[in-house]
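Lecture 7 notes: from sequence to structure.

We start with a single chain of 152 residues. Read the sequence below before looking at the structure.
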Amino acid sequence: MSHPEEKLAELGLKLPEVAKPVAAYVPAVRTGNLVYTSGQLPLREGTLIATGKVGDAVTPEVASECAQQCALNALAAVKAEIGDLAKIKRIVKAVAFIASTPEFTGQPQVANGASELFGAVFGDIGQHARSAVGVPVLPLDAPVEVELIVEV
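Now the structure, written as tokens:
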């Protein structure tokens, strides 16, 4: 299998710089053979890709792109903690929070923006448990936030 960052390049993607925390926390913590990331927002070069709620100002397609960016940001936080994405043995769990209108029920499809990226980059070890949760609001009015648990 090729290196995860080579797979990202094949997809036309690259790891961003680790997003600076917006409050009092760190981007990722390692304990034993697990790395837990803090929730990652869809920041690209320091700016949110979109703001607002899915089902209102944000389309499901844009929200899925946001989920993918959150996933990239989470992988950047993992890399900063462990030094090399090739050390990942398994994406264990992803949790996607989707700020959405009460009528919107497509949270799983939005979260696929992150999940499909993990599968494309890591193959079988990218297959993970997941929760996709609709919430009323997220920090900075972001439409999506993703956190990870990774085995190294």
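The CA atoms of residues 23 and 139 lie 10 Å apart. Keep this in mind for problem set 3.
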